[in-house]
Design goal:
About 7% of the residues have low confidence. Helices cover 29% and strands 19% of the residues. Strands 11, 15, 19, 20, 21, 22, 23 and 24 form an 8-stranded mixed β-sheet that branches. Among the domains are: 122 residues, Herpes Virus-1 (2-Layer Sandwich); 74 residues, Herpes Virus-1, CATH 3.30.40; 254 residues, Cysteine proteinases (Cathepsin B, Chain A, Alpha-Beta Complex). The chain is globular. The longest helix is centred in the middle third of the chain and has 17 residues. With 693 residues, the chain is of the alpha+beta class. The protein is built from 21 helices and 24 strands. This is Ubiquitin carboxyl-terminal hydrolase 14. GO terms for molecular function: cysteine-type deubiquitinase activity; zinc ion binding. Belongs to the peptidase C19 family. It is an enzyme of class 3 (hydrolase).
Length: 693
């Protein structure tokens, strides 16, 4: 809301509040504005409610979204003296009248977004399902351990709903997939309906019936509250940059500028200007009106197939998406980049039976942790609970909430599991010139200012059905991970030869790749997932894949190891040259930007301080790409967590708890309150701040 109404620039059609319209006049010189002022209409308590005829919200025939209605008044204002002219008026020039009419008849941006956001998909019911015949042939489908009846395939399996046969699917163009046995079976029997095993859940209608989640952006709200509680984001977008400077530095349309929208959001959250109760009582609860970050969401979610919708999303995926965009817009300015406060290095040490070793290094922003349920500290209570559950199941009785016991696993055991040595099968040893089993250990090469721990609560059951672990994590106020620092190559260690392997030293485990392909992922993406997780398992590969689906190089082939300068794709060099850049400059920019054309273009236009795009050298480019990461001691204190309530990352609800001024505060969308007993053991993402000194 903007006190005093909105002023719409009749040249650019951007809207400003009374406090900021002068900035636009100073920047653009545009003088004519449409002043729109709204007055809320009284709501009749006994008005009849319309019966919805469409499974949708906020559209004609759908459910009411309970938005208040407003009476709008219009006038034309001329700056800088704020001369007002009534509208409608025949005294106004025709050009102005037409422009004003265009603004008025245009559907409100929020309404347009809602209409596009969610309308239930029309379910197409197969005609065969209405007349399905099932043979009484004694076939019993097992719950797990499935295998094609005509070959040894254990993935991409289809269950025929007529005779219960389990057969493999189609063969893909690249030879992957199945052996066409399910299709051949249909050609012989004409039994038409089959389902892919592992894709059907008991709660098949849950997504349709959970209407309250349709416009959910709680994943965004919870994540951004924590982000703006960190020094990096607070300084970059609030303390070190005011709204005026961000607006002046923005392009002609600041609504599409991420820096401007982050600064605007930071000002809204941190200035205290909007931290006031609502002027009117809504139902029986008095609450703040909150700050709907619509423009910020529009910018950060632009062209993203999921975040651009109003459906619920995964808070982890959004965090990584945000970090990626913030890093891009700050390319070449590492000192200004707040995403670097989360960035750290991970080093994996691989030792083959020859005794020789290899080290793989990569950067990340989150430490994703498996949860070792066998480390639960309440095993006796769990055993008693399982016995009680079995007894009640036998009697057909339901458990009460008080009777349910969940495993309690210490966070330190999850961290210990990350560094525990594990066997890596099908590792190609260049010393032995064969595939063998290697031992892999992992550690951190640097400790970031802020450590984000992702608890892998979402796992795959038998049949590749996603499941959320119902588990508590015992999290202390402070942790010390100093022992997790990687020591790097030691004087007595000998590196594996670099000449023999064709790629990075790790070849993808084909079983992992095929299982991922069967789930619908692209083959090349699956190869990368297996290689980048060192073939450690299906769950690890899927987690990597879900976290890197939006990487700019996800579709590129796996690169071979390079012993000299960073590899630069010649086609990308040609693309930049076609834009008018010199070939040398294009090549250096791509080297400094890890081959990303968008980042390279930003690097050329905004080179690092002291480096021009015309005289940049490979060494300078390397310095930009390898700027030292924040580092320090391994002691951290818990400052916040994002917790999830629900059975899936794509439904349910996210809330944030943040430690502020010696107190825990809960941020539940627009509701903010002190939290006397924060559920620290229910976190999905934990945010730790490094303790210095």
């Amino acid at each position: 809301k903007s006190e005093g109404g909105l002023y719409v620039d009749m040249n650019s059609f951007l809207a400003f509040g009374k406090e900021f319209v002068g900035w636009n006049y100073e920047k653009t010189g545009n003088t004519v504005y449409l002043h729109i002022k709204e007055t809320q209409k009284p709501v009749s308590e006994d008005r009849p409610s319309k019966k919805p005829t469409l499974l949708a919200i906020g559209v004609e025939g759908g459910f009411d979204n309970n938005e208040p209605e407003y009476e709008k008044n219009y006038e034309v204002v001329i700056l800088p003296d704020y001369v007002t002219l009534p509208f409608p008026s025949v005294e106004l020039p025709e050009k102005v009248r037409l422009a004003v009419d265009a603004v008025i008849i245009n559907v409100a941006a929020e309404k347009k977004e809602q209409v596009a956001a969610w309308t239930a998909d029309t379910k197409i019911i197969s005609k065969h399902a209405m007349e399905l015949k099932q043979l009484d042939n004694g076939v019993i489908v097992p719950r797990s351990g499935w295998k094609c009846e005509k070959c040894d395939k254990t993935d991409n399996l289809w269950l025929n709903l007529t005779d219960g046969s389990i057969l493999c699917g189609r063969r893909n163009w690249d030879g992957s997939g199945g052996n066409d046995h399910a299709v051949n079976h249909y050609n012989v029997t004409k039994f038409p309906l089959a389902v892919k095993l592992g894709t059907i859940t008991a709660d098949i209608e849950a997504a349709v019936l959970t209407l309250n989640c349709c416009f959910c952006s709680c994943y965004l709200a919870a994540t951004m509250q924590v982000m703006f509680s960190t020094r990096g984001f607070c300084s970059r977008y609030y303390l070190d940059q005011n709204l005026k400077s961000a607006f002046d530095a923005a392009p002609a349309d600041p609504t599409v500028d991420l820096n401007a929208q982050l600064t605007k959001l930071a000002h809204g959250l941190l200035s205290g200007q909007y931290s006031v109760p609502a002027t009117k009582v809504c139902s029986m609860l008095r609450k703040q009106e909150g700050i709907p970050p619509r423009m910020f969401k529009s910018v950060i979610a632009a062209k993203h197939p999921e975040f651009s919708t109003m459906r619920q999303q995964d808070a982890l995926e959004f965090f990584l998406h945000l970090i990626d965009h913030v890093e891009r817009v700050n390319t070449g300015n590492p000192m200004l980049d707040p995403s670097r406060s989360f960035k750290f290095g991970i080093e994996e040490r691989l030792q083959c039976p020859s005794g020789k070793v290899a080290y793989n290094r990569r950067y990340d922003y989150i430490l994703s942790l498996n949860i070792p349920l066998h480390k639960a500290t309440n095993k006796r209570e769990l055993d008693d609970f399982r016995k009680l559950k079995a007894e009640k199941d036998a009697r057909g009785e339901e458990l009460t909430p008080k009777e349910i016991v969940r495993p309690r696993v210490p966070l330190m055991d999850c961290l210990e599991l990350f560094s525990t040595p594990e066997e890596l099968h099908d590792f190609y040893s260049s010393a032995l010139n064969s595939k063998t089993t290697a031992i892999k250990t992992a550690g951190l090469t640097s400790f970031p200012d802020y450590l984000v721990l992702h608890m892998r609560k979402f796992v795959l059951e038998e049949g590749w059905v996603p499941k959320k672990l119902d588990v508590y994590i015992d999290v202390p106020d402070t942790i010390d991970i100093s022992h997790m620092r990687s020591k790097g190559l030691q004087p007595w260690e000998e590196l594996l030869p670099e000449s023999a392997p064709e790629d990075s030293g790790i070849s993808a485990n084909e079983d992992i790749v095929q299982q991922l392909v069967a789930m619908g992922f692209q083959y090349n993406h699956c190869l990368k997932a297996a290689v980048n997780t060192s073939n450690s398992g299906l769950e690890e590969a899927m987690n990597w894949l879900l976290s890197h689906m939006n990487d700019p190089d996800i579709d590129e082939p796996i690169r071979k190891a390079q012993n000299s300068a960073p590899y630069v794709d010649p086609s990308k060099v040609e693309t930049l040259v076609s834009f008018g850049f010199e070939e040398d400059v294009a090549r250096k920019a791509l080297q400094a930007s890890d081959g990303d054309i968008e980042k390279a273009t930003e690097w050329i236009f905004n080179p690092p301080s002291g480096i021009s795009s015309m005289d940049a050298t490979p060494s300078n480019s390397g310095n930009v790409a390898e700027a030292p990461l924040p580092d320090g001691e391994g002691r951290y204190r818990l400052i916040g967590l994002v917790s999830h309530i629900g059975t899936s990352t794509h439904c349910g609800h996210y809330v944030a708890h943040i430690y502020k001024d010696g107190r825990w505060v809960i941020f539940n969308d627009e509701k903010v309150a002190l939290s006397k007993n924060p559920p620290l053991d229910m976190g999905y993402l934990y945010f730790f701040e490094r303790i210095n000194g």
